[in-house]
Specification:
Length: about 140
């Protein structure tokens, strides 16, 4: 079974979604998600590497639009966005609305020195193609680490 088959909606999805919106804090919702899909969240990190300022700018812009403060960056397993994965989609939307950034762990990882988030080589090359400012060479750590 691949990553993506693991997160199909359970039969009692309606009940769980109602439960999500009854929770008092985002931490409670985080705990719920971890209980239902225990291996989905791979890593929770604080900030992007300064080598990639546009990630932080996009995040800040998103938070201004949503009128929330920046929360954290969640690196997660791959998942399918379709009608069989609506629970996970709901969780992701709730976290996004609360100021989190959700990224796939197959494209982002923490710097080996300081734990700030960096794109992997594949994502790096995509950014380069899009003419987004990136360091001259891809690396597993920040240029100043
Ligand atoms: Zn670093």
């Amino acid at each position: 079974m691949s990553d993506t088959d693991t997160y199909q909606d359970p039969e009692n999805i309606e009940e769980i979604v109602k439960d999500i919106f009854k929770q008092k804090t985002i931490k409670d919702i985080y705990d719920m998600l971890n209980k239902i899909f225990p291996d989905f969240i791979v890593n929770v990190l604080t900030t992007f590497s300064g080598d990639y300022p546009h990630f932080d700018q996009n995040w800040a812009g998103m938070c201004i639009a949503l009128k929330v403060n920046k929360a954290q960056i969640m690196l997660v397993k791959n998942y399918v966005e379709d009608d069989n994965h609506l629970l996970l989609k709901t969780f992701c939307e709730v976290f996004t609305q609360a100021g989190f950034v959700i990224r796939r762990y197959t494209e982002f990882f923490p710097c080996s020195v300081c734990n700030k988030v960096l794109p992997n080589e594949f994502a790096y090359n995509k950014l380069k193609e899009l003419n987004i400012k990136v360091p001259e060479k891809w690396d597993t750590k920040c240029s100043n680490c």
